Amino acid sequence: MARDATVLDELYGVIASRKGTDPDKSYTAKLFSRGRGKIAQKFGEEAVEAVVAALSEGKDELVGESADTLYHLLVLWADCGIDPAKVWAELDRRVGTSGIDEKKSRAKK
């Protein structure tokens, strides 16, 4: 069964529920126990692996690495206390805005 992007909200809920649980029984709990630096490092590693897959591997590999990257980003958000709804709202705010104009508006801040 194909799912839509709501799977990210569901996954975030599962990830957030693993905070403070036994790191020997959950990879997510293990990431939380190792701290934000390790979580950020894993996110970066997965992002690089997605870039490598895009440049030198097939579509299936890129799909897998993209899923890993999104998972680790959600773990990072949970560790930082960022609800995905805030990110979705920011993306929604940007709809219809030129990327060039949006970048210029950030440079002025």
TrEMBL record:
UniProt EC number: 3.6.1.31
Alphabetic keyword roster: Amino-acid biosynthesis, ATP-binding, Cytoplasm, Histidine biosynthesis, Hydrolase, Nucleotide-binding
GO biological process: L-histidine biosynthetic process
SUPFAM superfamilies documented for this protein: all-alpha NTP pyrophosphatases
Catalysed reaction equations from the record: 1-(5-phospho-beta-D-ribosyl)-ATP + H2O = 1-(5-phospho-beta-D-ribosyl)-5'-AMP + diphosphate + H(+)
An annotated GO cellular component: cytoplasm
Pathway annotation from the record: Amino-acid biosynthesis; L-histidine biosynthesis; L-histidine from 5-phospho-alpha-D-ribose 1-diphosphate: step 2/9
InterPro entries per the UniProt record, alphabetical: HisE, PRib-ATP_PPHydrolase-like
Keyword ATP-binding recorded: yes
Gene3D superfamilies given in the database record: MazG-like (1.10.287.1080)
Source species, domain of life: Bacteria
Compartments (UniProt record): Cytoplasm
One annotated GO molecular function: ATP binding
Cross-referenced PANTHER family: HISTIDINE BIOSYNTHESIS BIFUNCTIONAL PROTEIN, HISTIDINE BIOSYNTHESIS BIFUNCTIONAL PROTEIN HIS7
Entry similarity comment: Belongs to the PRA-PH family.
Protein's UniProt name: Phosphoribosyl-ATP pyrophosphatase
Gene for this chain: hisE
